Structures are given as structure tokens and as C-alpha cells.
Write the C-alpha cells for this entry.
Amino acid sequence: MREMDSYIARSLWQDRMFACLGVLCTVFGLAALCALLVKLALDGASRIDWQFFFSYPSRHASRAGILSAWVGTLVVMSVTFCTAIPLGIAAGIYLEEYARKNWLTHIIEVNIANLAGVPSIIFGLMALGLLVYLLHLGQSVLAAGLTLGFLVLPIVIVATREALRAIPTEIREASYALGASKWQTVWHHLLPYASGGIATGVIIAMSRAIGETAPLITIGALTFIAFLPPSPVSPSPPFLSLDWLHSAFTVLPIQMFNWVSRPQQEFHLNAAATGLVLIVFTLSLNALAIIIRYRMRRRIKW
């Protein structure tokens, strides 16, 4: 009996120590993030105004802005979203619900998990050889969007599979018992239940893509650009233009890198302001993921 009491006491002590360690790690991470935000805010908040958002980069720090950078970020992210997200969700559905569980699918699953941890520069080198040199897409918005799409594709696939895997098997069996086909079960039952987890994975993937610099520098993104991509709207039929896909580009992380490399302190303040904008945008995406997941869980009744 004493041995049992001693074992229970030791287990409770270990649980408390583990809980304390987890709290300390969380506090340390939050403190580091808050310190970074405060430092960026103190250095760059004075530069954030309408002129900073709607001015092109300049050799004069007081007149320099991030117009071409945030517009380039939006167009590159739109290409990334339109290519990686549908393909990643479809691949996740196939692997989890349709693919046979054999050695081939096991190899595919292992490689997808490994690709999620590959350094981003490797994707940049791959895109340089495949997209820029082999397919002759050049240093364009299309090449950049596809590069980041390759980067976040494994994340979307893994998130989709985990969201589908979390759904109880009884829901599938009940749907089949009522005569539904495989696709009807996936479309009408599994995807609505998994939509919260999938949306969270998608937004987290886009949050990673928006902060990547190495693969875009590898394929030749410009560090100084004083023009915007062509408008996607054309005055003549069919009133849509795809010329913007072949335009040169820059993005917020590259613009920040360019200003940090300058020796003048004024450009460092511009870089701090750009970093603050980028962090706020990334945190907003993560907050949106939490809100979407919460609302979808409330809407669905098991």
C-alpha cells in the first residue's frame, strides 16, 4: 500500500512538473514575441502612414514606401492559393478516403511528411531549374506563386488528412447504410465536418508562404521595383488579362531585407515598419484560422 501511495505521489509530482515546464515554455515564447513586437513598434511605428503604404521604394528613406511590395505579396499569394489549396485538399481526400493502403501509398505518405520539413531554399533551387529554366516562366509572379505553392502543398495535404481522420468512422458507416456513394459521403458529410480543420491548415500554410524569402530570391525576385503588375481587368473583351502573371515582382520580406542591408539608420526604420506590417498580417491570418475553426465547430452538431 505504501508503494502504491509513493507511486501515485511521484506520478502527481511529475505531472505538476510537466505542467509547470509547459507554462514556462509558453510564457517564454509569448515574451519573446511581445518583445519583438514592441521593438518593431518602437522603431517603425512612426513610419507607418498612408504615404508609406502608397509610395514606391526610393533612395530617399523618408519618401520610400511599400506599395509595390504589398501589391506583389497579394498577387503572389493569390497564385499560391489558387494552385496549392485545391490540389492539396484533393490530394488529401484521395489519400485518406480513396487510395488503397499498400506499400505505394505508404511511400507517398512518408515522402509528403518529409517534404513538409524540407528547407525552403531547396524548393527555390527546384523552381529555378524547373520553372525558370525548363518551362521558361522567367522571374515572374507565376513562377513565384507556383514555387510557394510547392512549398506549402505538403502542409495542406497533411492538414486535410488529419481533419478527415478525426471524423468518427460511424459517420461514414451511417452514410453508406443509407445508400450514399463514396463521393456523396465525402461531399455531404466528411467535408462539412472537416472544413474547420482544413481551413485552419490552409491559413497556416498561407501564413508560412507569406513570410518566405529564400525561394523567391533564388528564382530572381527584384529587391527594388517602382512599378505595379499590369491590371487583371482589360477594357476589351474578354475584359480579363493574364499579363500580370508574367510581370516582375517583389514581396514584403524581400523589401525588408533590402532595407536592412542598407547602412543608413533611416532605412532600418523602414524595415522595422515593414516587419511590423508583415507580423500583424500573419497574426491576423492565424487569428482568422482560430475564429473559423471555432465557428464551424459550433455550427456542426454531432
Summary: The chain has two domains: 1-46, 48-299. The first helix runs from residue 2 to 44. The chain has a mean pLDDT of 85.
